[in-house]
């Protein structure tokens, strides 16, 4: 359901029961100490290979359980983290944490899986982002192909800057995906200009697949364009089998959504997918 709290409109969010802060300044003050107080955690959402129903990759999604106000939705706190610059420290923590899991899983002999992390524009565009990724991979001895960096079109504001960061990431060997594809205002020319591997079709298109012919046409076009450009396609927000049928019929290889799994705590994922 769409939550409407007086003058503030928050994005669609129904995964957990979430609370809200009385005001943004207070939220920022609490967020500032969230890492130190161990209030942040990472949930992982499995990505389903629609061609054979196997799971070989996950998306990392940040969760914040504040000691005073309880669960806060990323739709509420990510924009505050971004505006205040706190997203850099939080993002660094996520990169480290995800690489640490990879190391631990490798040592436990679990099968290799890729983990995608969401990178905010501020972090992506901060000097030395690629070197940071490189250092984290090295610290935990993680093969680069097990890390995926999700960016949005809003990260790609400057052509030269974007090209150089993406080229560095490509040289490292990590995967790069464009999240929420179709919702931005960028020119499609970036798809041929930049070394991108994956396109994630925004969940708003998936939600309306069966209700709207225009959405069908758009999704079909995104999938075939991606294939022609040699890109992998992931559908976000799959909630119904009819959506899967449509996506499979049109050769979309991967998808994630509540139909398969909600984002789950890391321990749950480990028990469910790795410990036999
Ligand atoms: P996103 O990266 O596009 O992530 C997908 C969102 O859709 C997640 O919401 C996920 O829980 C939700 N979702 C997954 N399957 C379904 C489904 O079947 N139906 C519906 N209705 N929703 C589904 P979440 O975790 O609340 O995150 C919201 C957004 O906050 C993310 O969108 C991303 O932009 C941002 N975010 C989350 N974690 C991080 C992070 O670690 N770093 C950064 N920079 N941003 C993050
Ligand atoms: Mg994402
Ligand atoms: Mg998305
Ligand atoms: Mg998003």
TrEMBL record:
Coiled coil: none annotated. Residues 24-276 form the EAL domain. It comes from the Bacteria. This is EAL domain-containing protein. It comes from Lysinibacillus zambalensis. The chain holds residues 392 to 667 of 667 of the full protein.
């Amino acid at each position: 359901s769409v939550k409407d709290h007086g003058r503030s409109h928050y994005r669609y969010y129904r995964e957990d029961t979430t609370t809200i802060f009385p005001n943004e300044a207070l939220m920022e003050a609490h967020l500032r100490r969230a890492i130190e107080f161990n209030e942040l955690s990472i949930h992982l959402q499995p990505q389903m290979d629609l061609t054979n129903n196997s799971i070989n990759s996950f998306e990392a999604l940040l969760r914040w359980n504040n000691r005073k106000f309880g669960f806060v939705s990323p739709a509420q706190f990510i924009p505050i983290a971004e505006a205040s610059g706190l997203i850099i420290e939080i993002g660094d923590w996520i990169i480290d944490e995800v690489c640490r899991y990879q190391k631990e899983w490798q040592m436990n002999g679990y099968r290799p899986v890729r983990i995608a992390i969401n990178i905010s524009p501020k972090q992506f565009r901060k000097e030395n982002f690629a070197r940071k990724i490189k250092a984290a991979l090295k610290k935990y001895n993680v093969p680069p192909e097990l890390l995926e960096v999700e960016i949005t079109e809003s990260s790609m504001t400057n052509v030269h800057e974007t090209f150089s960061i993406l080229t560095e990431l490509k040289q490292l060997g990590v995967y790069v995906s464009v999240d929420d594809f179709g919702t931005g205002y960028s020119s499609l020319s970036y798809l041929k200009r930049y070394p991108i591997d994956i396109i994630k079709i925004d969940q708003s298109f998936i939600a309306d697949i069966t209700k709207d012919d225009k959405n069908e046409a758009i999704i079909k076009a995104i999938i075939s364009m991606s294939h022609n450009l040699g890109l992998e396609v992931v559908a976000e927000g799959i909630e119904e089998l009819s959506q899967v049928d449509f996506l499979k019929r049109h050769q979309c290889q991967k998808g994630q959504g509540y139909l398969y799994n909600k984002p789950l705590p890391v321990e749950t994922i480990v028990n469910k997918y790795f410990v036999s």
